[in-house]
Design goal:
This protein is of the alpha+beta class. The protein folds into three domains: 52-123, Roll (SH3 type barrels); 131-227; 287-532, Orthogonal Bundle (MetI-like fold), CATH 1.10.3720. The protein has helices at 4-12, 15-44, 87-90, 143-187, 195-225, 258-274, 287-318, 323-335, 340-363, 378-402, 406-414, 419-448, 451-456, 483-492, 497-532; strands at residues 52-57, 62-72, 78-83, 94-98, 102-106, 111-116, 122-129, 229-233, 239-243, 247-251, 277-278, 283-284. The protein is flat, with a radius of gyration of 31 Å.
Length: 538
């Protein structure tokens, strides 16, 4: 039994605070681990091919689909949720079936799952494939081999069609540039009989002829691609004729082994990282959103990191510690707590309409009233997030500089170094681990922000990337996609929320992984700096 003196000693040693701090740390780590576990558990298994189960009901009907979950029903019994696909036939992707209505289940090896360009997945059975000329072809005997061969041919045709489309896009870009040059000359008052105008008109006519030829080739190729079809039968016995060109991927999950499923999984992950989105962003890849997120964080870092470090250097090393400096520090600390949507409104008014509108009037008057820089884009979104994150960089950098003992500064100056030499060769290298800490925090916050981006340049679908192979290669005026906004869009704005849930978890897992990868690289660099300059508190 503890005596009153031992209890007093327990409180004097501060052990309750230690236990409370440990419990708070454990609760925080448990919450983070739980969040990551939920996201990972739901995001990792999305692309693994699940078996197709055929339920036979007591009324004689059959239902084929992927089992999503079993659920207990109040009052006893269970029910199952099936992903039945075939949205063009049934109108819905999912169906609930009461357990009491099920007479039997089986997993047919010949059940086929199709990923399509439109209307989501199709589940059914292969009935036959048409011949290459569009006529009747193979029946069920050898039909799967015929479907695979037709699909490979359709993939080659799709690649050829995409090459034609890229050629059309390049032609459109050249036509647009020619049109803008012609517009600029006319805005300057150049006469129509001027050789420069005549040359641009001739080039415009030649590009228009080339465009017509490319469009005719593209239309002919599209008609040829859609000639070959495949016949499928759903679980109700209804026959559906589908163009092979519209099939993204065909597989029989019940007949696949572990190795085949692993190859399928890796192919889906590759499509996620390098493919284009489809079906209102609920399927396909996230390459435009990944590029937009990474480039936005990079541009934000280019603006916020130097500005924050220079401000911290001035406040700590050069500014006299008076009333103005104290007020500036208070303002910087308070700016870190301003809601991000306020920064978005400021970015829209100041950067987009203020600076962008003036730049349009100065640099591109011939394009008005169509805005070039006076509309949302990745440049203005990055500058807005730079303002949002620069207080974090300032505070961390100033604390890192303040942690360096004063004697080091005095010793350097006593040995004949100038203040600039002391700063650049001694103080900044020693403070670099702490400065990198602020950079990591700023980068992680910017990657997860969505509200300011919705106002300053992010879009649901961006046909052109802010970085491509067309000069000048980096297009800061373009709108962009972002992983955070992608989660919001498909999770809360999709007309088919249940079908979009897997992509929500997958995108969230990808965003977390991207932030961890960027932060991990910065942490590795910070540790190298810390080992090299092993002085101070960082």
């Amino acid at each position: 039994m503890k005596t009153p003196s031992s209890i007093r000693q327990f409180w004097r040693r501060g052990e309750p605070g230690v236990w409370a701090s440990g419990a708070a740390l454990a609760a925080m780590l448990l919450g983070i681990a739980g969040m990551l576990a939920v996201v990972a558990a739901n995001g990792v298994v999305v692309f693994w091919p699940h078996r197709l189960c055929e339920f036979t009901l007591h009324d004689g009907s059959r239902v084929l689909g992927e089992v999503q979950q079993w659920q207990d029903v109040r009052g006893g019994g269970r029910r199952v949720q099936l992903k039945v696909g075939n949205r063009d036939l049934y109108g819905l992707d999912f169906r609930w079936i009461e357990g009491a209505d099920v007479a039997g289940t089986r997993f047919p090896c010949d059940a086929v799952a199709l990923e399509r360009q439109e209307y989501g997945n199709f589940y059914g059975y292969l009935a036959g494939v048409s011949a290459a000329d569009g006529g009747p072809g193979d029946g069920t005997g050898g039909g799967w081999a015929a479907l695979e061969a037709a699909w490979r041919q359709a993939r080659q045709q799709r690649e050829a069609l995409e090459r034609l489309q890229r050629g059309i896009n390049r032609n459109n870009l050249r036509m647009e540039r020619t049109r803008l040059r012609l517009l600029r000359l006319r805005h300057r008052g150049v006469a129509e009989d001027d050789p420069r105008v005549a040359g641009l008109l001739d080039r415009q006519a030649a590009l228009q002829r080339e465009f017509s030829q490319l469009v005719a080739q593209s239309n002919a190729a599209a008609v040829e691609c859609r000639r070959r079809t495949a016949r499928f039968v759903d679980s109700h016995g209804s026959e559906e004729v589908l163009p092979v060109f519209g099939i993204v991927r065909a597989y029989r999950p019940n007949a696949m082994g572990r190795l085949a499923k692993a190859r399928f999984y890796l192919g889906k992950v590759g499509e996620l990282l390098f493919g284009q989105p489809r079906e209102a962003n609920t399927e396909g890849g996230l390459f435009p959103a990944i590029v937009g997120t990474v480039m936005m964080v990079f541009l934000m870092s280019v603006f916020s990191f130097p500005l924050g470090v220079l401000t911290a250097v001035y406040l700590r090393e050069y500014a006299r510690d008076g009333l103005v400096v104290r007020l500036v520090r208070i303002a910087v600390n308070n700016l870190a707590g301003v809601p991000s949507i306020v920064y978005g409104i400021f970015g829209l008014g100041f950067f987009v309409y203020g600076i962008g509108g003036r730049l349009d009037r100065w640099l591109f008057p011939e394009r008005l009233p169509t805005p070039t820089l006076g509309t949302g884009g990745i440049l203005w979104a990055s500058l807005t997030l730079a303002l949002l994150t620069v207080p974090v960089v300032i505070v961390a950098s100033e604390e890192a500089l303040g942690a360096i003992p004063r004697g080091i500064r005095e010793g350097s100056l006593a040995l004949g170094s100038t203040r600039l030499q002391t700063l650049t060769r001694l103080l900044l290298p020693m403070a670099s681990p702490g400065i990198m800490t602020g950079f990591i925090l700023a980068m992680a916050r910017a990657a997860g922000e969505v509200a300011p981006l919705m106002i300053t340049g992010v879009v649901k679908l961006a046909p052109s990337l802010p970085v491509d192979g067309t000069p000048p290669f980096v297009h800061v005026e373009r709108k962009f996609m972002h992983l955070g906004f992608h989660i919001y869009d498909i999770g809360f704005q999709s007309p088919n929320v249940e079908a979009a849930k897997p992509m929500v978890f997958t995108t969230a897992l990808l965003l977390v992984s991207l932030v961890l990868a960027m932060s991990g690289s910065a942490i590795w660099l910070r540790q190298r700096m810390k080992r090299r300059y092993a002085m101070g508190s960082f």
